[in-house]
Amino acid sequence: MTSPSSNSINAPAVAGVSLWVGLTVLFSHWMGRQAHHWLPVQASTAAPLVDDLFSFETSIGTFVFVGVVSVMVWVMLFNRAEKYDDTDAVPIEGNMRLEVIWTAIPFLLVMAIAFYTIRATSELGVLGPMEHIHPRNQQEELGGYPGDRLPAEQVEVIARQWSWEFRYPDVNVSSTELHLAADQPVTFRLVSEDVLHGFYIPAFRVKQDVIPGRAIDLNITPTREGVYRLRDSQFSGTWFAANQSNVVVESDEAHRAWLEQAARAPLQPGLTLAVSEYAARQLRSNSGWATVPPAPPPQVNVPGSANQPHDA
Amino acid sequence: MTITTFPPEPKPEPGWSRYFGFCTDAKVIGIQYIVTAFFFFLIGGLLAMVIRGELITPASDLVDRAVYNGIYTMHGTIMLFLFIFPVLNGLNNLLIPTMIGAPDMAFPRLNAVAFWLVPIFGSLLMASFLVPGGPAYSGWWSYPPVSIQNPVGHLLNGQGLWITAVALSGVSSIMGAINFVTTILRMRAPGMSITRMPVYCWTALAAQSLQLIGLPALTGGAIMLLMDLSFGTSFYRPEGGGDPVLYQHFFWFYSHPAVYVIILPVFGVFSELFPVYSRKPLFGYLYVALASFIIVGLGLIVWVHHMFPSGVAQWMRNLFMVTTMLIAVPTGVKVFAWLGTIWGGKLRLTTPMLFCLGGLFNFVFAGITGIMLATVPVDIHVSNTYFVVGHFHYVIYGAAVMGIFAAIYHWFPKFTGRMPYEGLGKLHCLLTFVGANMNFLPMHPLGLMGMPRRVSSYDPEFTFWNVVASLGAFLLGVSIIPFLLNMVSSWIRGPKATHNPWNAIGLEWLLPSPPPEDNFGEEVPTVISRPYGYGTGEPLVEHQVEIERRLELLEASA
């Protein structure tokens, strides 16, 4: 907002602003790289795409934020009224050219982000971590998977108040701990027996509401061996916070071995913190705050372990 | 002009009692709204302290999980329906008639009814703490089927009271909206064309239009929810063939625009205050004013961005992402206009100005995380996590509440006739700014790491940032003390205010402080120029010099 009357270019000012913009660009770039460290480990094919987008947005966001705050700080430092000066400043009522510029640039910027995102989203759609409503047998025709990468494994995920049960129908195994083979595409079929739940594995960057009355298919490909957390992400009542489960990603051989061993294991009650906490709560005097009683623990071959350390 | 034909009726000294009764004076109603709102603000804040107390450790160890869920639900509900909407309606009542030179609102009795519904549904909501089973616990969204599970089985239950209170709040807001829209459209001073109207009135008009369009959806959705809960219908009940996702559309069709109902008047406050304390006209008045209505138009077609992970088609995700992103453009126009306004000004860093600058800082931050949330893949990862909680607390507390505090400090002398204390005000501002950032910034890394919102316990890796957030929350809790102290003491014995202590331009500053009941009465001045003529030397109204001299004489004789 240099005054339009001054045709001479204020060289030190231009140099100063350019230097500051340059520094801001460098800082924004650095923040964009830092952004990767704020996210959990990448354990699925979706994760790098999401993280790159977030990093890109962090860079742009940092640039805008630092720009705005720089102006505010400058004004607060150098445009203060002198003591006892109650005169008005030079009345500038607006500037058509600036209005056009600061309408057009944000417009182009957000459209660029939107375009980038739509591309990333469609790529994710191909990889599978978005909801697929279409029937399962049509996936190949819709271009979801190259023939040789059709998900070999189908896992049925049953969400309840408050436990997660995983069924492997091909081998007749059930578990309250999710076991997956690394680098193998897998299809989840998400169902809920009571209320809304959210199927959220932060390390996979995947989240899908589980909706009672619907079966939702979701495809992902884990890429990194380790133990991760599955968290309920859609509020589901009293023990919502405790409705979590471990996700174990293991090598293909280890996974096969686990399935074989699990198929031979007898059925036993699965893990659910809600059931034990509810029992303890019933022993205490009634607080007057009502709760829905938890569903009984599912009978599974493998309950899993609640206390193993997780990577994310 | 000063001689009245009839002898003036002996007016009783307006006492405190009128603030406790059914009064139709908009200025009394405005203060009733604001004081009631702050009463509930304290209750909502107390609940927030319990929430942050629970979350300072990973385990669920302070309160029972059922109690925690009830408390966070009531915190959100109280803060939105009993604090922020009423406090903004309070500002509307004070500012709209005085800014446009109207004697009162268009429908004074409707106005009083709209206000008195607030304590009524407020009591109803508070009563839900006392009914068997405790208050509603399904979050301020009250998504079915959780919200229709009714564990106690009584017809009278917390969730039922919650829905009734929210529906009544909607009725009250619709009454208010009809009043504000009519008043702005029909009762402006002579010469005040719509393009000479202060931006606060523009934003209030925009926000109240949104209320009129959006609220029927929420009210309808809430009534169906109540039927499902109490009378066994199956609008949303999956086992009866209903669709729980339908409710989400009804809910967000209103509740996303509701965010603009909150933030638009605060943009109005920023647009009023930056010129006063920079001694410069508002940069690009018309663009700032019109951007409000572009925000209204776009704000009505973005609601699905709250539902990206809840089972919507891909085309919807892309479409609603684009509309959400577009809102950044008119919002950017406003932000840049404020920067243009303060640039090269003669800044006076008074309490209201500091609150505005802090609010703008927080708002820009929230806008950037908002763009991140609009992009589908990032949203899929962070939706329903603390990232979202951090984002909207930056908007609601960081920007809106700070803007509301700015407005209160700025217009306090006008409507009470007393000056607030600067020292306490600045202390309040500092504590609020530091507390809010310390409370809400740590929520972003927590969300990125994958901590879901609404949890009563969490995995130990989230401890560090939660401790920081809780300490920030306690600081915010303390920050309200200098505010209350300031308000009470300056109202009782603060220095007397002149008619225009900030040397501001606007019709409200041509009234005595406090203004008489009918404001300008029969002598409404004729507006001859655009608002914010700082430095131009142009008067705002005809005979401005005489009006000001008369006010000064009145003050000198008092």
Description:
- The complex is a heterodimer of chains A (312) and B (558).
- Helices cover 36% and strands 20% of the residues of chain A.
- With 312 residues, chain A is α+β, with helices and mostly antiparallel strands.
- The two termini of chain A are 48 Å apart.
- Mean pLDDT of chain A is 88; it is low at 1-6 and 132-148.
- Residues 1-5 of chain B have low confidence and may be disordered.
- In chain B, helix 6 packs parallel to helix 9 (328-342).
- Chain B has a single domain (21-557), classed as Cytochrome C Oxidase, Chain A, CATH 1.20.210.
- Chain B has helices at residues 26-54, 65-100, 108-127, 158-186, 199-231, 244-278, 285-299, 314-326, 328-342, 351-374, 376-382, 386-416, 422-440, 443-449, 463-493, 544-557.
- Chain B is mainly α and 558 residues long.
- Chain B starts with 25 loop residues before the first helix and ends with a helix.
- Chain B is 64% helix and 0% strand.
- Chains A and B meet through helix 2, helix 3, strand 8 and strand 10 of A and helix 2, helix 6, helix 7, helix 8 and helix 9 of B.
Put the structure in a nutshell:
By secondary structure, chain A is of the alpha+beta class. Chain A has helices spanning 11-34, 46-78, 96-127, 252-264, 273-283; strands at residues 131-132, 153-160, 163-168, 173-175, 178-181, 186-192, 197-201, 206-210, 216-220, 226-232, 244-250, 268-269, 299-300. Chain B has a single domain (21-557), classed as Cytochrome C Oxidase, Chain A.
